[in-house]
Design a protein that fits this description.
single chain, alpha/beta, Rossmann fold, ten-stranded parallel sheet, 34% helix, disordered N terminus, leucine-rich repeat, plant defense, Toll_tir_struct_dom_sf, repeat
């Protein structure tokens, strides 16, 4: 996963040597507390000596250049010393800028501040800060002299001087200080304060956060945002990132404070304790308790804060009230102040009106490897191939979580290969307690509803990603409030939702499962959820189920055959979710005596290879939401009528013995029926598919199927491939007049596939075609009104621009046989060229295409066919623009199959050509477009079990095109058409070429 197999040992060994050398260097990088930068002739025997003595008296380890040994290269030693110091004190004096060495020191110091967060404190000794900031007086003259010999460095020095002079520091000429002794005392006090309060800790060896650091530093220095939130799961590095940003920025503020562990300390000591600490540091008061009142802070404290530019970090907040109590929102502090808050709960930041929320994400594979090597291997180690594999196992377990990588890397450091293997085997059974305790903090803050949803996601929905809508459907029917629950879990970074799918980090999943294991360590039958194959095997084999169990998921590929007791499910009355699945679809749960009943609370029932001929006679199906029983031994599901008001999906694919479908007339919410490969089924009765919400029907490879009763108008997806006995299909006509407002109109994801249905009758084809075309008519009928709709953006005024913006799914291709209809305007046009007249006030809405594939009579099995097209567009006598696209058909096309589809996207390209190549004053004349089309296809066939391509990019000769204008659809009821589909157009590229080139 992380390293190529070839030469892994060598690659990893070299990498670890380099990285461990870096780790070794970084572990010793802070050698000095303070680095002093000064001009010796100005200060060495006076001010500097007093400052140095005071620092040493306080046991502050200080570096000055007289520590250099004879013969040591001064520039290299100084640069290294700067890097190895936590604080840099820069003493700007009259002749500081006259020294090239001083300026090089300064440039290096400012570089370390930027890259490593080094603390920089400027001291202006007998010099006006404005001289330094704007390079005036002696600084002006010194830099002018340097221009002669060091012209390439002067601008760097100027920038460093300006940046340093803008930092918070000390001015010896200020009335605040009585004399140099007082000044020295205040400087040392500040140094001690910074050394004591700095949250820096061990920030060396940071991996994978330099990009985020720069982004946040830029955000704090260049934007007007006041409150910035760092959000992410526990252990992902929020505090580390906030610390690095704090160290980089704090010198630029008059007051600064890093409040650690706000959640924990607020619970332990109260919010007023934290408030006092915050005010002490921001106002530089040893005791700020007089400023804290029961309801907030005193008015005088508010006035002082309102005049102070501050930087505040609130680490690990779990309530927006904490942010309000401590920082008072956007207006409490002075201009240009910044508040950074870290939290596991995004909702806290949203409630606090956070200006910018940055999600801290897990490390990628390269950064994970680097961080692990820094923590797990000794300097100049030689890594064996076995350790490479073990390292990859560790990183696969950690899934990019920095906390886990550091903990396990440090724990494994110095251990033998056998100890590594033992520890990893232990981890696979029992997660690390330190990691788990940190992750569990977010779970502890959930309410009962959200905890149950989280545990179901961790234990039952155990795939990498689950569809959000399916989760909502099932868990809503289990009595949970799922929509808000998922939002809360997402806000707390316990799950993530992307592209309508829910996913969970593996370590968080393990945390959830450990919580369930803790319900009863010794008896899995007394736990609320079962997911481990060994535990589930024990419960089912020995009939140890209890009323505690709410969900079971079992991978039958991982167990031996089990003989189920007839009353297995009677012992689990609270069971709601069941999934018995197998990677090879082989059932391992036999029930020779049958199953007497199913739990009445069952919502989801998935059993691959269900062994019985029907479900038990005594069960209540009224709560069923999904029934999934592929490759079963069912002959019928049940006898008689059932109240199935909650049923949404029935999947009996591959149940070759199924003779009939049950009465589903009361399944008013049924959306999906899949019975592909049910070879004994002869008909789909009206009662099985009468739901007005039915969208999906798959009857492919039902070899004996003869008829499909009238399908509701709601259906948009019918797969009936290879139903060679099918002769009758009826689909309710769809009213083309849109009943919804224009905002709700969009093309639906339509697929009607009747490949190799040779016996399909003419009336059935007509019914299918009329229904499919009705799906297109609705949005097209609404399109012409777009131009007069005032609230649409200018870019959306063209009808298809609006429609394409709402088109989330491209309607797919239809498969039927026959020549192009006579009403097509262009059938096999000469040279593929057509001329379009776009009249004033009219709009081109797209094209209907029809292509016919040549017959395929070879012995190879066709797996799929890809189609590509190219077309050239030009305004009459203007330049030509070429475009191309491609789509993939997962169909086994053999005969002269015809494909219809609607493509409106290409007219966007044509609109662009018209807009860019016509006179804007041409309002009364038609615009003539010349369009040339070419279509190509490639077949993917199976030859001796290997896929090969045939007829690669072969041009199609039989095709037709029909342009659609807004004027054509103003009276759709008189528009007699055949079924159409929108193409799944991808990879559009445009270039200027001659026509036909």
């Amino acid at each position: 996963m992380f390293i190529d197999e070839a030469d892994t040992c060598v690659i990893f060994d070299n990498f670890c040597k380099e990285e461990d050398m870096a780790a070794h260097a970084s572990s010793e990088i802070i050698k000095y507390d303070v680095f002093l930068s000064f001009r010796g002739t100005d200060t060495r025997c006076g001010f500097l000596s007093h400052l140095r003595k005071e620092l040493e008296d306080k046991h502050i380890k200080t570096y000055v250049d007289n520590m250099l040994r004879e013969g040591t290269e001064i520039s290299h030693s100084l640069l290294a010393a700067i890097e190895q110091s936590e604080i840099a004190l820069i003493i700007f004096s009259q002749d500081y800028a006259s020294s090239k060495w001083c300026l090089e020191e300064l440039a290096k110091i400012m570089e370390c501040r930027k890259q490593n967060g080094q603390i920089v404190i400027p001291i202006f000794h007998n010099v006006d800060p404005l001289w330094v900031r704007h390079q005036k007086e002696s600084y002006h003259h010194a830099l002018a002299n340097h221009e002669v010999r060091f012209a390439d460095r002067v601008q760097i020095w100027r920038d460093a001087l300006k940046e340093a002079a803008n930092l918070s520091g000390f001015d010896s000429q200020s009335s605040r200080f009585k004399d140099d002794a007082d000044l020295v005392g205040q400087i040392v006090k500040r140094v001690l304060q910074r050394l004591n309060q700095s949250p820096q800790g061990d920030l060396q060896g940071l991996v994978g956060i330099h990009g985020p650091i720069e982004k946040l530093v830029s955000l704090c220095t260049e934007s007007e945002d006041v409150i910035i939130g760092l959000w992410g799961m526990g252990g992902v590095g929020k505090t580390t990132l906030a610390t690095a940003v704090f160290n980089r920025l704090c010198d630029g503020f008059e007051g600064f404070c890093f409040l650690k562990n706000v959640r924990e300390r607020a619970e332990k000591y109260g919010i007023d304790h934290l408030k006092t600490e915050l005010l002490s540091k921001l106002l530089k008061e040893e005791d700020a308790s007089p400023f804290v009142t029961p309801g907030g802070i005193t008015n005088f404290a508010k006035k002082r804060l309102g005049r102070t530019k501050v930087l505040v970090v609130l680490d690990d907040v779990n309530d927006s009230d904490q942010m309000e109590d401590l920082c008072g929102g956007h207006t409490r502090f002075g201009a240009s102040s910044k508040i950074i808050a870290t939290t596991r709960d995004k909702h806290v930041l949203l409630r606090a009106d956070t200006d910018h929320i940055h999600q801290v994400k897990t490390l990628n594979s390269d950064d994970s490897l680097q961080l692990f090597s820094l923590n797990a291997f000794k300097q100049n180690c030689i890594i064996k191939a076995e350790q490479v594999e073990l390292s990859k196992r560790v990183l696969n377990y950690c899934k990019g979580l920095p906390l886990a990588i550091k903990i396990l890397g440090s724990f494994l450091k110095g251990k033998t290969q056998q100890e590594w293997e033992s520890e990893l085997a232990k981890l696979e059974k029992t997660p690390d307690e330190k990691i788990q305790s940190i992750l569990r903090l977010s779970y502890n803050e959930l309410d009962r509803n959200d905890r149950n949803i989280f545990l179901e996601l961790a234990c039952f929905f155990d795939r990498n990603t689950e569809e959000e809508e399916q989760i909502k459907s099932l868990l809503d029917h289990c009595g949970y409030t799922t929509t808000i629950g998922l939002t809360n879990l997402c806000n707390k970074a316990l799950i993530s939702i992307s592209n309508d799918c829910v996913s969970m980090h593996d370590l968080i999943r393990e945390m959830g499962r450990e919580i369930v294991r803790g319900e009863c360590l010794d008896d899995p039958g007394k736990r609320s959820r079962l997911w481990d194959s060994c535990d589930t095997y024990e419960v089912l084999k020995y009939n140890k189920g209890t009323q505690v169990i709410q969900s079971i998921t079992l991978n039958m590929s991982e167990i031996d055959m089990i003989r189920l007791h007839p009353e297995t499910f009677e012992r689990m009355p609270e069971l709601k979710l069941v999934r018995f699945h197998s990677s090879n679809s082989k059932n391992k749960l036999c029930a020779p005596e049958g199953i007497t009943s199913l739990p009445k609370k069952l919502r989801y029932f998935h059993w691959d290879g269900f062994p019985s001929k029907s479900l038990p006679s005594s069960f209540g199906a009224e709560r069923f939401v999904e029934i999934i029983m592929p490759n079963s031994g069912l002959q019928t599901l049940w006898e008689g009528e059932q109240n199935l008001v909650n049923l949404r999906k029935v999947d009996l694919d591959g149940s070759s013995s199924l003779m009939e479908l049950p009465d589903l007339s009361k399944a008013s919410n049924l959306r999906e029926v899949s019975i592909s490969g049910c070879k004994s089924l002869r008909q789909v009765p009206p009662s099985a598919v009468c739901s007005q919400k039915l969208k999906y029907l798959n009857v492919s490879n039902c070899e004996s199927l003869e008829s499909i009763a009238e399908l509701p108008a709601s259906v948009v997806y019918i797969i009936a491939r290879n139903c060679r006995s099918l002769h009758t299909v009826s689909v309710s006509a769809l009213d083309c007049v849109a009943k919804e407002p224009i905002l709700q109109q969009q093309f639906e994801d339509i697929t009607f596939n009747f490949t190799n249905c040779d016996k399909l009758r003419r009336n059935s084809k007509k019914s299918i075609m009329e229904h499919a075309y009705g799906r297109l008519k609705r949005p097209l009928a609404a399109a012409p009104t777009c131009a007069t709709t005032p609230w649409l953006d200018k870019e959306d005024k063209h009808p298809f621009r609006y429609l394409s913006g709402k088109q989330h799914n491209h309607p797919k291709l239809n498969v039927l046989s026959g020549a192009a209809p006579e009403w097509f305007r262009y059938i096999n046009p000469q040279r593929g060229a057509v001329t379009l007249d776009v009249a004033p006030g009219d709009s081109l809405l797209g094209f209907i295409f029809w292509i016919i594939f040549p017959a395929y009579y070879r012995s190879h099995e066709v797996q799929a066919t890809s189609v590509s097209y190219k077309y050239w567009v030009r305004v009459m006598h203007g330049p030509s623009f070429s475009y191309d696209g491609h789509w993939f058909l997962g169909e086994n096309i053999w005969l002269n199959d015809s494909y219809f589809w609607y493509d409106g996207q290409c007219c966007i390209d044509m609109i662009k050509v018209m807009e860019e190549n016509t006179d804007t004053n041409n309002n009364n004349n038609s615009i003539q477009l010349v369009v040339s089309f070419q279509f190509f296809y490639t077949r993917l066939v199976l030859s001796y079990r290997y896929p090969i391509e045939e007829d690669v990019n072969k041009e199609l000769e039989d095709w037709a095109v029909h342009p659609i204008y807004a004027s054509d659809v103003r009276n759709l009821k008189d528009w007699s058409v055949h079924p159409i589909y929108a193409s799944d157009v991808r990879n559009r590229q445009a270039s200027i070429q001659p026509v036909g080139s």
